[in-house]
UniProtKB/TrEMBL annotation:
One Pfam family linked to the record: Integrin_A_Ig_3
Origin species: Strongylocentrotus purpuratus
Protein known as: Integrin alpha third immunoglobulin-like domain-containing protein
One GO BP annotation of this record: integrin-mediated signaling pathway
InterPro entries referenced in this protein's UniProt entry, alphabetically: Integrin_alpha_Ig-like_3, Integrin_dom_sf
Length: 297
């Protein structure tokens, strides 16, 4: 007897986006709320088949705390369009560095050092694991699952004195899916990976009231190159006009000048020799017409 293993398999696609893509947080000395602006990460799971999937779960990792113990973000809500509730579990990263993951680069315009804090669960010491269960998932776009995670930056942490050098904060969340079974009795699910983990990024621009900000001005070399380019085009245009003798007036030869003079004299003589109306002979018909006109009068 030949035994052939049978598995149910499907192609799962995780996608998502940040709302907004870029967030601006502004220092306000008059603000009383320690929480900053709202950001939302939307995760979408679609089953492209061929099989339906059974009990499954989507896990979302969300960064919440920095190396010094300060709260960076606060999750304010999670919603799933199936209506099923999601659970929250703290996730401690004992392998994280003792220093915040800050990178630098030199801005070409201002020639200053730009500091960026990377906030992700691979580098921060504490995250929250959000687990959203699924009973099953059919195939097709109409059956796709949407999960929205809302969170706010901790205003006091971003604008703390020891963080006043930051220009950008990159917030990264990640999502993965685990399939635990199928909807087909007695048929196991394929043990192979079903979906590539998803990572969603939000760029946060930090603006201070008194600290320096990046002012991007147009470099002087752009004006110099533009002026030289315009001058070069003008010189080429003038050279082309000179090449086609645009600036040279056409000279009339002596023979042509004498011919024009003779033609002018001929026209004057013709006008002088033409008879005047008083010298023209009046025909009998014209005379009769004149008499008839007098009789009518």
């Amino acid at each position: 007897m030949v035994s052939i293993p049978v598995y149910a398999t499907s192609s799962l696609v995780l996608s998502g986006n940040s709302i907004p893509d870029t967030l601006v947080i502004t220092e306000d000395s008059n603000a009383t709320d320690e929480k900053g602006p709202l950001m939302t990460h939307v995760i979408r799971l679609q089953n492209n088949g061929p099989s339906f999937i059974g009990p499954s779960s989507i896990e979302i990792l969300w960064p919440i705390r920095l190396q010094d113990g300060k709260t960076l973000m606060n999750v304010t809500g999670v919603t799933m369009d199936t209506g099923m509730p999601c659970t929250f579990t703290p996730r401690i990263n004992r392998d994280s560095s003792k220093q915040n993951n800050v990178t630098t680069f030199i801005d070409d315009v201002s020639n200053s050092t730009i500091y960026t804090l990377w906030a992700d669960c691979a580098s921060l010491p504490e995250c929250v694991a959000i687990r959203c269960p699924l009973a099953s998932l059919a195939t097709g776009a109409d059956s796709a699952i949407l999960i929205s995670v809302q969170s706010r930056l901790w205003h006091d942490t971003v604008f703390a004195e020891d963080a006043s050098f930051l220009h950008f904060i990159e917030i990264l969340s990640s999502a993965s899916v685990t399939v635990n079974g199928t909807v087909y009795p007695g048929i196991p699910y394929s043990p192979h990976p079903t979906a590539t983990p998803l990572e969603i990024q939000t760029e946060v621009r930090v603006q201070y009231e008194k600290q320096r900000t990046i002012i991007k001005t147009t470099p002087i070399w752009i004006y110099i190159v533009s002026s030289l380019g315009g001058l070069l085009i003008l010189i080429i245009f003038i050279a082309i006009l000179y090449k086609v003798k645009f600036f040279q007036r056409k000279q009339i030869s002596q023979e042509q000048r004498e011919l024009l003079t003779e033609r002018r004299k001929s026209v004057r003589r013709s006008k002088a020799e033409a008879p005047s109306p008083d010298d023209m002979e009046v025909s009998p018909l014209q005379r009769d017409g004149s008499v008839a006109g007098l009789i009518q009068e």
